[in-house]
Amino acid sequence: MSTSILAAGCYRLALRAFPARLRSRYGDEMAATFAAAHTQRRNLSARAGRRFAARAWFDAVRAGLGTRFNGGIRQPGGPDRGKVRGAQEWLWTEVGTDLHSAFKVLRKEPLFAITVIAVLALGVGVNGALSNALRAVFLAPAPFNEPDRLVMLDLSEQNVESTEPPRAFAWSYPKYEILAETEGLAASSVAAYARRSITLTGHGAARKLMAEVVTSDYFAVLGLPAWDGGAALTVDQVLISHALARSLFGDTDPAGQEFAVNGVRQIIAGVAPPGFRGLTGSADAWIPMAAVPRIISPTLLENFDGHWLLAIGRLGTGGTFEQLRAQMASVGARVHDGFEWTDPTTRQVGTARSFEEARRNAAARQAVGVVSAAAGLVLLIACANLAVMFHAHVANRRREIAVRLALGSARFRIARILLAEVLLLATTAGAIGVGVAWAASRAVVRAWPQSFMNGSWNVRFVDSTGLQFGVPAAVATFLLASVAGVLFALWPILRASRTDVAVAMRAGGRGQSHRDTTGPWLVATEVAIALVLTIGAGLMISSLSRLARVDHGFDSSNLLTVEYTLQRGSAEAEDPAAFHDQFLGRVRTLPGVVSATMECRSPLDIHCWTTRVRRAGDQRWGEGQRPRIGVHLVDETHFAALGIPLLSGRAFTAEDGAETPPVMIVNDTAAQRLFPSGDVLGQPLTVGVSLTSGNDTAAIIGVVGDVLYDSPAQGVMAEVYVLHRQEPGRDTTVIVRALGEPLDLLPLLRAELAVLAPEVPLTNARTVDSIGAAQLGDTSAITRLLAAFAALAVLLSATSVWGTVAQMVGRRRREMGIRMALGARAAQVVRQSLRYGLVWASGGAVVGLLGAYYLSRTMESMLFEVTSTDAIAYSASAVLLVLVSLMASYLPARRAGQVDPARTLRAE
Q1: Is the model's pLDDT at 704 over the cut of 90?
Q2: Could you tell me which of 650, 612, 604 has the C-alpha nearest to residue 630?
Q3: Could you tell me the CA-to-CA distances from 649 to 676, 679, 704, 718, 833 in Å, in that order?
Q4: Is 765 helix (H, G, I), strand (E, B) or coil?
């Protein structure tokens, strides 16, 4: 009884779809009729009662909504109600019948339907995943107000004896003041900024964060409200990001709270807008320029040779980029006259470039363009595969179509039935493709190389949030599947609608004997495209393997690197060398530690800094001719701990220090370039480093093997090693070799540092192997994507070869049986079938080789020690495609050799 009451209540709810006037007049009668009919069905069986109730609810809602929206009084000039109803009935009956018929046909051929849906879903899925990356790289504007009016204002270096364009470098603060004080600029406002790492204490554990040092007009230039107060930051204030505020204070307003920045108490003035991370894209806080002497360096704002700032401006009303560029030339002249440049062959000049140009990342654009083109080729192969399969599907139904036409069906009706099948398959594939694209986009975000995020010089190029898969991308993916499915099925549909009834009926059930080259041509096209992708992937794999085999110059196994910075003005910073030695001594006694050393930066990561050589032995260089050299601060155990070979001379010892004569060690490359005669030991070397003793010249005491600090593509450069006690610094990187898993030592290292300096955070813990892998991240990510697309293309092309040969075997089965009855051997029939598939696949391979020859040239800048016409990649890819096509042809060809001649003759 309760079930009947529940069903009646649900039916009453369904009646709410009708207008109130109709419910009040007929509602009770309809409900009573439903209750009686439901009771009668329920007495037969519970299942019958449930099915009747569900159908009745659906009919009530459909009829009620139709009455509510189509049954009102017709307005003057409005559509005739009868015509609207007739169109609705036609849509419901005709289109519904077509879809129902298509579903019945596809249900009888599940393998065909599943294959088509899978192929199309994969093709549109990978393209949908990359559409966000393509949009972010080529189309997405900067997340600031009117970004087209933002202009980067550069101080550049121009060689007076060269026609090369000026080389931009950073401003010093005294030089930037000349720009800021210039009147009449086409820019309505100008600001300077720089990225600096800071240590934050006072709220939980110490943290190392990234901050932007900014001038007062920074937020105004970007067209963003700085914070609720809106006023410029004072010397004792700091602005923090929304993410940092939530992390430290939750939902509480942090304004007025205090914490220490590099040991200096600062007041939180406010919170930046959600999602805003500055021009660098990584800022957690913003420090006013006036606070630099307190927080960073007391002399940085006064040093006119300390180039560390970038300048940005916003064009004012009526101002043009050409006007501003002309004005920057006069600004550069004033800077050059006010601050004499040390190199007489160069001049300081002012230049301007659009913000979009500064954001441009040529490597990222090329990589995304190549990968997106590869994804588009995969979609093209998938659509060609769809055309091959649907063509075979329609060919197998030629007799059915002929019978329908003979019984009076219109050719348009036949095309509409087939189109309904395509739409059903395409929309299903589109829905699944959206899921594939969503999953693939998450993988793209994780694999997106960090270097592809950045533009030039502390300007964020694209953020990972721009790569997320959203609703617009989902809609585009679904529509792409629907449109692609219909377009590539139109040709088979049109051919089927033009079927010759007499010919098809005469063929009967024996198949068709006419030659049909549509499928083979599509197969050849797929093989050609697949070969282009395979060659591209082969070139990248060969390049990546060569990059991975580059000798690093040291033993990188089981090495852990961690960083810390001593706060300026702290007790530890009074003698940083002694603190570093003390901490290393404690680390070496930890269980599981094999050795420990220090360096200002980790190998494979980046140089500590690079400078110019002024003197090497008796040779001296003038300005403009000085060779570049990398400088590294190390301790005396560094070379032994990392396994760097000592080629000649001696290493640093504990006796070398601030009170002893300055000494240096050079790598083999520096020894050969600076001292081609081979006489290195004991020679004086002068670089842009002033040692503790005040003497900027040191004697070379040893030569060590080359170590890779840049990417493998950049190679090894000349390096010099300085003992950290003779050039002490507050920043350091500790490198520990572990017995087992390096990261397991991290808690022990943090505990030891907390004992010596609780306010100093240990940051950026990484294994050296992970740093090396990150160097290959760009090439590795592109290679993985291209290899995946190439594998998918090979699989799809093999499927098409298999399907085309199988269709040929089915069409010529009668002919093969007769030939075997007349004495042909099964092996001959198999070879003929194999030859059919291989001829078309080989033709496609030839075209693919030609296409790859021209298209692979776009990848030349992405390759390392591999040419775009590498013979091994071309030949291996071509052989692979031909072998896969041979295997795909063999299975249906083998069936051709199993035709029973006697059965064929009986059928005749």
Answers
A1: yes
A2: 612
A3: 17, 11, 9, 18, 73
A4: strand
